[in-house]
Amino acid sequence: MDEVPGAQFVRGDARLPTTQAAVVRTLGAEADVVLSDLAPNTLSDPGVSHLRSVELARAALAGARSVLRNGGTLVCKVFAGKEEPAFRKEVQECFLDVRAYKPKACRKGSVEHYIVAKGFVPDQLRGGLNDEEQVENCSIFEDELRPGESEVVVVRDGALVERKNSFG
Hints:
Layout: H1 17-27, E1 31-36, H2 46-67, E2 68-79, H3 84-92, E3 95-101, E4 112-120, H4 123-126, H5 131-137, E5 149-156, E6 159-167
Parallel strand pairs: 1-2
Antiparallel strand pairs: 2-4, 3-4, 5-6
Helix pairs in contact: 1-2
């Protein structure tokens, strides 16, 4: 790949802690966004390709958890399949808003889509705080709310229990 001015590259297996540590060192600060377009080599067995895709998405999630700032965003590619709902639940444990998105550019019938997760809550804010402290320390994106819309986040024992949007 040609050099990109102002960019630094970390080459390695995204699933390995050594590669993730190199990204943290290179970054030198918390990130606002982690964007992962990782995809496995597809095989004739779509089930195996799906499992490999989820493995790579989990690596992206692990990397995001180590570099994202409070309130940060993760966007990662994943192939639809039986393990994708469990992966999405893992993402929901540390993000306030998690949605699946399939770009119009994807081929019809493609299993590829993206998980878009906003409102990262770091481990230290999710665990060990009482409910009032937890809500106080969470980032709520008021600028994304429309007029008359409100948002309630319910946290118990350091875990997101419920998130409600109301439209006025």
